[in-house]
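Morning. Coffee machine broken again, so started the prediction first thing and wrote up yesterday's gels while waiting. Chain of 453 residues, entered below exactly as on the submission form.
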Amino acid sequence: MSESTHWTNRLATLTERHGVPGASLGILSGGDLIETATGLANADAGIEATTETLWQIGSISKVWTATVAMMLVEEGALALDAPIVSVLPELKLSTGELTEKVTLRHLLTHTSGIDGDFFLDTGRGDDCLELYVEKLVEAAANHPLGATMSYCNAGLSLVGRVLERVTGVQWDRLMRERLYQPLGLTHTATLPEDVLRFRAAAGHVGEPPVVAPQWTLMRSAGPAGLICSTPRDVLTFARLHLDGGLAGDGTRLLSAANTGAMHTPQVSLPDTRTFGDAWGLGWILMDWSGHRLYGHDGDTIGQSAFLRVLPEAGLAVCLLTNGGDTRGLYQDLYSEIFAELAGVAMPEPPEPAAEPVADDVSRYTGTYERASTRIEVFERGDDLVMRTTVTGVLADLIPESQREIEQELRPLEPGVFVTRRPGIKGWLSATFYTLPDGSSYLHHGGRATPKAG
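Came back before lunch.
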């Protein structure tokens, strides 16, 4: 059996096991590419998934935006540690400190403190990012500037506007000119009218998965998560980073030094069990059995994407999916791929502690809140429970049954718990911690949510 056939069979078997309607997989190893797809791109319409299908890569888009930002840093049009107001003087954020001192480095490392899930539909026009940034003053300061890391979609939309300002080119077109065309990408786009020239996957939500009520997020979220692509094109982008900033034809798009800086730790994560242990300039950084990897995930409306790069082995893997237990699929599939092709063991997901954990859980109870999310932590008998309510614009994009979810918090160690969503087998961590100023936070899903009461 060929290697391609083997991974085709494994993808089909594991997607069915995890209730994923459709998926596409790409493996770049030693310069060779394997690509395969299985299932349905749209279950309602009966459209099969193929290797030519475009999927939403979600927040993997952030690394693409960061890469173009670093090109402009290299050209001298931007500086990592200069205040954003030096190139965007009209910027107004919720506090004077944020307005005056937030830098590109803060935005690329998710340490700005801007409440990251401030989603706002500012229309379909080319001025959508300009209008979005005008409204950013309404986004609260989630934490003091640089005090911790909290995943920030809003910050990347702001980066997109900064790129527009210094180049004079609208973000969607800038990405085509600076990345898609130089890399020779043929199946990558952001605007729906461009995506629909191809076979396009629909997101699926719920259990069993059904086609989501909306296909994509608002255009103002573009730099944070609206690129659509195939595993082949995503891995061509990953090869740019593996090759130190060189495109496939030998054209240098970014210096080796600045490419390497993107993979260098900039900030440690409060929760090291969900994505990785540190953040670079755009990339998530992680340790798998003593081997350093970088990567990124993406989640949109019913679509999930996973990219992992192991530079020492020249190995990069991209998985694009559209509903079901996508994280379970990722865990099982990547465990096999990295073990078989590189001899690297993927970390097991966290599990509840086998023995009782000595901890006063009452100190964690209360309400934690940020834009789009309210989390209530309370005791029910001997259990600690987390009730998550999606609020604001995001609530309108998901089924009503998923807008409020209760999950038991099982202890792992003092201050650290694991939890899982209904219908999902894998555990995710939730970390309670305090900042130097004594304020209490819950870090879950990459976000730092302040305690409100």
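The chain is about 30% helix and 25% strand. Going to sketch it on the whiteboard this afternoon.
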